[in-house]
Amino acid sequence: MQSDNSIIKEIFKNLSFTDEEIKIIESVFHKIIVKKGTILLNAGDIVDTQYYILNGCLRTYHIDTHGKEHTVQFGIKDWWISDYTAFFSSEKSIMTIEVIQDATIYKITEQDKSYLYNQIPKIDRFFRIKLERAFAAFQKRILADLSLSAKERYLRFINTYPNIEKSIKNYHIASYLGITTESLSRIRKEM
Amino acid sequence: MQSDNSIIKEIFKNLSFTDEEIKIIESVFHKIIVKKGTILLNAGDIVDTQYYILNGCLRTYHIDTHGKEHTVQFGIKDWWISDYTAFFSSEKSIMTIEVIQDATIYKITEQDKSYLYNQIPKIDRFFRIKLERAFAAFQKRILADLSLSAKERYLRFINTYPNIEKSIKNYHIASYLGITTESLSRIRKEM
DNA sequence: CGCGACGTTGATTTGCCTCAACGATTGTGG
DNA sequence: CCACAATCGTTGAGGCAAATCAACGTCGCG
Predict the structure, then answer these.
(1) Which of A84, A59, A146, A164 is nearest to B136 (CA)?
(2) Contact call for B72 and A139, based on CB within 8 A
(3) Is B140 helix (H, G, I), strand (E, B) or coil?
(4) Residue A188: CA atoms inside 13 Å, Cβ hemisphere, count?
(5) Does B138 sit within 8 Å of A142, measured CB to CB?
(6) From first to last of its 191 residues, what are the pLDDT tens digits of chain B?
(7) CA B184, C1' D9: Å apart?
(8) Is B177 domain-assigned?
(9) Is B48 helix (H, G, I), strand (E, B) or coil?
(10) Domain of A105: which CATH number?
């Protein structure tokens, strides 16, 4: 257990806490290092954990009725990842969360998160603001999916995730863009 | 100005407030009735207001570089509507918010909302939870756009918005589904 | 080195779009 | 309240972007 306040510096930048609050925070977040290929959440599992990404890369994907993978989200530095869809319908996940580049993450259970909200009300605000940003990002994504061609979506992707583009698999990008690997290959060729 | 606490009962169900807090809330929300066809926010405008829908129906759409409309969201009873994308990039809206069925709404400016957050911290939690739901809805929408055919997306739409389907225009639905009115017409025919 | 995973290329198919024309419905002024 | 126009929805013919299916390079790792 780290007692160097690193979690405070890493996750809750710009916020200040009492010693008592820091103790609470350190007791509910757990820092773990995960290897490429690790599955943090499997479709069908109970969703009871959220993840904060310090470094590395995760992806959240869904397998549809035809067996095809669809990447809903890449998780990079400073993003929170979970399957929110599960919270308000069933409790079972329809998503899989996979580590695609070795990562350092903080995990917290839903139960501990509720506890945290109740003990330190300012955490509500912190997550409200995080959610506003994530919401905006998704609103943009929907717009892009509706209005752009495959090639335009790829260009937008490169812009949105400039650093991960080289280090992740072709078919991860394709499944994020909603196209096949073959199509992505052809798009790249003509550039 | 209503002094019957109706806003508390309507928006902030399940929460309790002091008389002082109620006064603050009533001072920042404004209830208005808007007619079908009204534009609440125009693309290019400064985004400084959010809307809560008591009844009626709004839609948020974007016009792309080819002049085509894309409906990002329908706003129905108990939803909050705004252009979040604008908050974190430019302050100018890229969306238009249009009333498509006579509606009763509450409006609040961003400035007043900040004031409200500071005066009544539990409001942070209220909106955090609202955002979690909205986020989950968008996560599902992205999945649907990625994995379903036009016909399947239409069926999902009917399920998601069972009541508004009859009262809104064909081309609104088509622009939400990401297809043309002609395609939607053909999909309906074969059902 | 050799095998499996990943990426590319080609031929063909298909779902949806485009363009065009024609019904149906709605709203409005006389 | 009807007539007519404008808006909205439907239908058909043809085209295109991306999918599918199949085969073949290429890269990285045990």
Answers:
(1) A84
(2) yes
(3) helix
(4) 15
(5) yes
(6) 445 668 888 899 889 999 999 999 999 999 999 999 899 999 999 999 999 999 999 999 999 988 899 999 999 999 999 998 887 766 789 999 999 999 999 999 999 999 999 999 999 999 999 999 999 999 999 999 999 999 999 999 999 888 787 779 999 999 999 999 999 999 999 88
(7) 10
(8) no
(9) coil
(10) 2.60.120.10
Question: Are A142 and B145 in contact (CB < 8 Å)?
Answer: yes
In a domain? residue B53: yes
Q: What is the domain count for chain B?
A: 1
> Tokens standing for A31?
């820092």
pTM of structure: 0.91
Domain-located, residue B36 = yes
CA-wise closest residue to A61 among A182, A191, A175: A175
Tell me how crowded residue A128 is: count the other CB atoms within 10 A of its CB.
Answer: 20
> Is A64 inside any structural domain?
yes
Interface residues 59-78 of A with strand D (CB < 7 Å): none
Query: Per-residue DSSP letters for A98-135?
Result: EEEEEEEEEEEEHHHHHHHHHH-THHHHHHHHHHHHHH
Domain hosting A71: range is: 6-120
